[in-house]
Request: fold
Amino acid sequence: MPDTVLLGTLLLTGLVGSFGHCVGMCGPLVMAVSLKGGSLGVPPVRSALLLQGGRVLTYTVLGGAMAEAASIVGRTASLRQGMGGVTVLLGLAVTLLGFGYLGWLRPGWAGSGGALGRAMGMVIRLGGWRGFALLGVLNGLLPCGMVYGAYLAAASSGSWQEGAIGMLIFGLATIPALLLVGMAPRVLGVKNRQALVRVAGGLVLALGLQLILRGMAALALVPHLRFGSVVLW
Reply:
C-alpha cells in the first residue's frame, strides 16, 4: 500500500516550496526559456511545459533509483532492521535540510553547477522542442536543497516504484508556480517568497521527524502510530 503520509507531504512541500524557493532559484531560467521560445515562434506555454517535463522526468528517474539503492542497502541486514536503520539515517538528513530552510543552519548545497551550468547555457541556445526538453533534464540535476530533501524522503519508501511516484508527485506540484512566474514574474514579492520558504522548511522538518520515528518503529524502539489505514510511523 502506498505511503499516503509520505506522498502527501511531498505534494505539499513541492507546491508550497515552489512558490517560495523555486520562483527565486529557477524563475530566471523559466523566463529566459520563455523569451527564447518567443524569438523562435514557440508559444511560451509549450516551451515552459517542455522545460518542466524534462525536469520532472529527471526527478522521477532519480527518485526511483535512490529508493532502489536504499532498499538494497537495507537488505544487507535483515529487511526490518536494515530498512529501519536506513530510514532513521535518511530522516536525520531530511531534518538537517529542514533546519537549513528554516534558517537554523547554514545551507551547504549552494553552487553554480559548474560544468552543468555551462552545458545548460549551450543547450538553451539550441532551441526547438528537443533543446527545451533537454534543458529541463539538466535543470533537474542542479543543486537544490529542497529537492535533495524530497529525494531522501522518496528513498525511504523502500521500492523504486514508490520512490519514482513520490518524486513524480513532488515534481508535478512544483510546475504551477514556475508556469506562473514565466507569465507573470512579479506576482510574488520577496517577503512572500521568504515566508513560503519557511513554510516549506517546516514541512521538510516534519517529514524528517516522521521518517526518524518510522525507522525507530521498524527497529522496535518506539510503537507504530496508525489512524485507520494511515500509518504515521
About this structure: The mean pLDDT is 77. DSSP finds eight helices and two strands in the chain. The radius of gyration is 18 Å. The beta strands are 226-227, 230-231.
